[in-house]
Automatic annotation (TrEMBL), chain A:
It catalyses: geranylgeranyl diphosphate + L-cysteinyl-[protein] = S-geranylgeranyl-L-cysteinyl-[protein] + diphosphate. This is Geranylgeranyl transferase type-2 subunit alpha. It comes from Papaver nudicaule. The keyword Repeat applies. GO terms for cellular component: Rab-protein geranylgeranyltransferase complex. Belongs to the protein prenyltransferase subunit alpha family. Catalyzes the transfer of a geranyl-geranyl moiety from geranyl-geranyl pyrophosphate to cysteines occuring in specific C-terminal amino acid sequences.
Automatic annotation (TrEMBL), chain B:
Heterotrimer composed of the alpha subunit RGTA, the beta subunit RGTB and REP; within this trimer, RGTA and RGTB form the catalytic component, while REP mediates peptide substrate binding. It is an enzyme of class 2 (transferase). It comes from Papaver nudicaule. One of its GO terms (cellular component) is Rab-protein geranylgeranyltransferase complex. This is Geranylgeranyl transferase type-2 subunit beta.
Length: 697, 317
């Protein structure tokens, strides 16, 4: 029941006479229809009864089915001649029209009409006129729009004509999201097809910008044109093809590997050593968008100790997707021990043969080439020190110098960008610049949001220019706009806050890598704890940044210690790319559930985790329950082989920890961390030594 | 802000059964199975499922099953996916799935899948992503998802995705919050949410909140309590629900209560019905309103019911 005013309740069960009569009549019609249906009675009288019923209650679906049976019955009958069939079908179209006049949103009625027309025996001439009537009464009736697309396809109406129809509808009243939607769908199709008159994206988009500006600037509060505008913007700025944005190891680096088994996951000198007892090191490629098809034919690796075809690539994805931004291959350590300290080259070419493809089906088309060297260092690793990693501020000192970070500096777009030579056409830049000028004049919410997105796009375009890498000139203005929007549109403040965080973290990381403005930032510090296992590790600290969301993972692939405590994070989507990460502090954030930490399960090197003082177990609704691979579909999940667990325990909790190789874990200050649970944890994590700072043995 | 008049709503739902004679009640007889699902789920969320005669409900539900295996909206009507899911949900709610001939039922549902992965609503062939959701949810609850081509089913849903991030009934159809729930729900259940641009869709969805705090289903439409479910559950499944003002939404829903006679309406001071009563209470459940059981955003059943179906101790399987 929609939009009907509430009336005072009738005294117990007493309806007025008229109403009783009406409902009795309807009840009789409905039961007679069912009787006729069951007994397969298709007399004229029985059919009339169903017409009468559908005119009153078009939602009575079985009556439509009954009529379909009637039509079939007649079409199949031996006496069927063309005139008879035509009159039967016309009669159906007529009753549909009557039913739609009663309820223009009746699924059953609209479908009955489609079913009749699909027989291919009726004229289609009347259909657009009928639609005009219904779309005039309600220009947003999505049933009618769906039906219009159906008829247009049936009549082979050219897309261009339907595009014109949306122009007419929008000219009548621009506040018609349905028309904008259809325009977007048709135009996007015509652009992809490069249909005649639509082969110049520049020209087409230019006209569309003009068209949608009228709507937005006439009434900036009306949302109808917003989404269309942002679609145009997206069409203008999105690169045609995915781009490789970073890797680990980086180009021209010298990686020192240690096989010393005692130092599983050791993280000594910051950027270019890797110790593991596994005998493999990760090689990570990070793309600008989700791609598929990274394999030994699309990526060629020349390396003495492994044949290219033996190298297997995996998408770093928390779902079953074949797509990911980050892809990893694990490469063998050099096995010629005698030649330690000899550097062996690894030469990589990406995308010289086809295969890497974005989710939107565009091919990677910027073949690039780079190389690094690896050598084994047997003697240099230290004795195992204290296992514990202490997250206290006084353990972190001595900011990393630019020289320390130098090995990371060459990884980025500077190198790959040149190879990519992503050309930003003049018209794209000109469009963005003129849009920026235009939207500076609009002080409404949508004006500010559009401006922020335009400025971000502008910076992104500039960064394809290799000369200006690491400079994002608009950052401060964008941050200010989002801060402003939080106040202007408080209901959605956390949307703007998330956008703000993504820009803020990028800003912090870019400053880290740039010479200027560096001194005031303390983002990258050494861990000083003499004789501890992790002594001299380089730690990226983004604590106390008021971040509600993180991103910019392409700058962080090398990071092994990451401190994100005292933020407002509730998600770590994308963190799975950081394959070297050993120690992670997520304490004092807003994580609501363990499922939100699912990306951690892909981090093979993770040993130290602090998730204390979050909101885990506090909420009845888990907002990340379905975000990653669903466990709640076909299979019955079995939990825990021992008897410790009760029905009341959250089984997902145990499932989560089972896959991790943690040595140190902090969970206190969460609703779920009771004694019983801690006992269970110790059982699920055989390598665990410290739980909330206490020895588990 | 008013409190939830839980007791009144329970009484209202129980009283509906006694008002079978009104014109509205007669006009809605064909979807009584949906009504049973809305009413009983509301009662369960409010902890009052015991107020109905459960055996009577089960017996009536089973009388609605057609020889094809599908369920009708009422006794003697034709079967349809819309009512088949409600029947399964009602039986799940009452922990009575074992009364079903599961293979017969799941063959009916699986038999409605088309070559392109889409699903028909019944033998007459109407296609809609609503039916894709129904098939996937229904078969998952019965542990029979393997009976359909899930990959193709997902592919078809993705073909209905729009450039605003939302989904329509069929390819090219306009995005609509109800349709978005169906598609996001189906993708969630099949572990396929990576097909969704969560930021794009999340922004479209959070812009459904209007000044009064209520949510609409499409741009420039009026708010309606039912979208508290469609929009909110979708936002939760893609983990973007913090992008709306939850307190304002809770207030809007509470303002739509008929505090005197029970029930919740689409907008304040409109006539109440069981559909909006369910969506209002379910919405409040998603908002973690105290005293209401938690509901699962994908299956639209209480979390404990869903957990019971999917998470079991090894030895009890």
């Amino acid at each position: 029941m929609h939009g009907r005013p509430r009336k005072p309740l009738n005294p117990e069960g007493i309806e007025d006479k008229h109403s009783i009569q009406k409902s009795n009549e309807l009840r009789d019609l409905q039961s007679q229809l069912l009787r006729n249906h069951h007994n397969k009675i298709y007399t004229t009288e029985a059919l009339k009864l169903s017409s009468k019923l559908l005119a009153i209650n078009p939602e009575f679906n079985t009556a439509w089915n009954y009529r379909k049976l009637f039509v079939q019955h007649n079409l199949n009958s031996s006496q069927a001649n063309q005139d008879l069939i035509k009159s039967i079908l016309d009669q159906e179209l007529e009753i549909v029209e009557i039913a739609l006049t009663r309820n223009c949103k009746s699924y059953g009625a609209w479908y009955h009409r489609k079913w009749i027309l699909n027989k291919g025996l009726s004229s289609l001439d009347h259909e657009f006129r009928l639609l005009d009537k219904f779309l005039k009464a309600d220009p947003r009736n999505f049933h009618a729009w769906n039906y219009r697309r159906f008829v247009a396809a049936l009549k082979n109406v050219p897309e261009e004509d339907e595009l014109k129809y949306t122009t007419e509808m929008i000219d009548l009243n621009f506040s018609n999201y349905s028309a904008w939607h259809n325009r977007c769908a048709i135009l996007s199709y015509l652009l992809v097809q490069k249909a005649q008159g639509f082969d110049s994206k520049e020209k087409v988009l230019g006209e569309e910008y003009e068209f949608v500006h009228n709507a937005i600037f006439t009434d900036p509060d009306d949302q109808s044109g917003w989404f269309y505008y942002f679609w145009l913007l997206d069409q203008t700025i999105t690169p045609d093809a995915p781009v490789l944005v970073s890797s680990w190891p980086v180009h021209s680096s010298d990686l020192i590997l240690s096989l010393d088994g005692r130092l599983d996951g050791c993280i000594l000198s910051p950027c270019t050593t890797y110790c593991t007892n596994k005998g493999y090191f990760p090689f990570i490629l990070y793309f600008s968008e989700n791609v598929e098809g990274v394999n030994s034919s699309s990526v060629n690796i020349k390396y003495m100790f492994m044949k290219n075809e033996d190298i297997s690539w995996e998408p770093l994805s928390t779902t079953n997707a074949r797509y990911a931004k980050a892809w990893v291959a694990y490469l063998k350590f050099p096995d010629e021990r005698n030649h330690s300290l000899k550097a062996y080259p690894v030469e990589v070419t990406v995308g010289h043969s086809q295969g890497i493809m974005s989710y939107s089906r565009s091919n990677y088309k910027f073949p690039s080439q780079f190389s690094f060297t690896v050598r084994i260092d047997e003697g240099d690793c230290k004795e195992v020190g204290r296992e514990e990693f202490v997250w206290l501020d006084d353990r972190f000192s001595d900011e990393a110098t630019l020289e320390d970070l130098n090995p990371m500096l060459s990884f980025d777009r500077l190198l790959i960008g040149q190879a990519n030579n992503t050309e930003t056409s003049d018209w794209q830049m000109e469009t963005i610049v003129s849009q920026i000028d235009l939207f500076r004049k609009l002080n409404d919410k949508i004006g500010k949001l559009a401006l922020a997105r335009l400025l971000i796009a502008h910076d992104a375009m500039m960064s394809y220019d290799s000369s200006s890498t690491h400079k994002k000139v608009n950052t401060e203005e964008v941050l200010k706009l989002f801060t402003n929007l939080m106040k202007l549109d408080p209901s959605r403040s956390r949307y703007y806050k998330d956008q703000h965080s993504l820009i803020a973290i990028e800003q912090a990381l870019l400053k880290l890598f740039s010479q200027r403005e560096y001194s005031d930032m303390k983002v990258c510090l050494y861990y000083r704890d003499s004789n501890a296992r992790y002594e001299d590790s380089l730690c990226v600290g983004l604590n106390n940044y008021s971040l509600s969301r993180i991103g910019s993972f392409e700058y962080l692939l090398w990071v092994r210690v990451l401190d994100l405590k005292y933020n407002e994070l509730q998600s770590i989507e994308g963190l799975e790319a950081l394959q070297l990460l050993s120690c992670l502090n997520l304490s004092h954030n807003k994580f609501r559930s363990l499922t939100a930490l699912e990306p951690l399960r892909l981090l093979r090197s993770l040993r130290v985790l602090d998730i204390s003082y979050n909101e885990i177990g506090l909420h009845s609704i888990d907002t990340s329950r379905y975000l990653y691979s669903s466990r709640l579909s076909d299979t019955i999940v079995t939990i825990c082989e021992n008897d410790v667990i009760e029905e009341t325990d959250c089984p997902e909790t145990v499932l989560f920890f089972k896959g991790l190789q943690l040595i140190q874990l902090d969970i206190e200050g969460n609703a779920f961390s009771n004694e019983k649970f801690r006992g269970l944890l110790v059982k699920s994590l055989p390598k665990l030594k410290l739980l909330d700072g206490e020895d588990v043995n | 802000m008013g409190e939830l008049a839980a007791e009144k709503h329970v009484q209202y739902i129980i009283s509906i059964e006694k008002k079978k004679d009104s014109f509205e009640a007669v006009a809605m007889e064909h979807l009584r199975m949906n009504g049973a699902y809305w009413g009983l789920t509301t009662l369960d969320l409010l902890g009052k499922l015991g107020a109905v005669d459960q055996d009577e409900v089960v017996s009536w539900v089973m009388q609605c099953q057609h020889e094809s295996g599908g369920f009708a909206g009422n006794i003697g009507h034709d079967p349809h996916m819309l009512y088949t899911l409600s029947a399964v949900q009602v039986l799940a709610l009452l922990d009575k799935l074992d009364v079903l001939d599961i293979d017969k039922l799941s063959n009916y549902v699986a038999g409605l899948q088309n070559e392109d992965g889409s699903f028909a609503g019944d033998i007459w062939g109407e296609i809609d992503t609503r039916f894709s959701y129904i098939a996937i949810s229904c078969l998952a609850l019965l542990h029979r998802l393997y009976k359909i081509n899930v990959e193709k089913a997902v592919e078809y849903i993705v073909s209905c995705k729009n450039l605003d991030g939302g989904f329509g009934c069929t390819p090219g159809g306009e995005s609509h919050a109800g349709q978005i729930f169906c598609c996001v729900g189906a993708l969630a259940i099949t572990g396929s949410l990576h097909h969704i641009d969560k930021d794009l869709l999340g922004w479209w969805l959070c812009e459904r909140q209007v000044k009064s705090g209520g949510l609409n289903g499409r741009p420039e439409k009026l708010p309606d309590v039912c979208y508290s479910w469609w929009v909110l559950s979708s936002l939760i499944m893609i983990d973007r629900v913090h992008w709306i003002d939850k307190d304002k939404l809770a207030k809007f829903i509470l303002d739509c209560q008929d505090k005197e006679n029970g029930g919740i309406s689409d907008r304040p001071d409109d006539a109440v019905d069981v559909f909006h009563t369910y969506f209002g209470v379910a919405g409040l459940s998603l908002l973690e309103y105290p005293g209401i059981k938690a509901i699962d955003p994908a299956y639209a059943l209480p979390v404990d019911v869903v957990n019971k179906i999917f998470l079991r101790k090894k030895d009890s399987v």
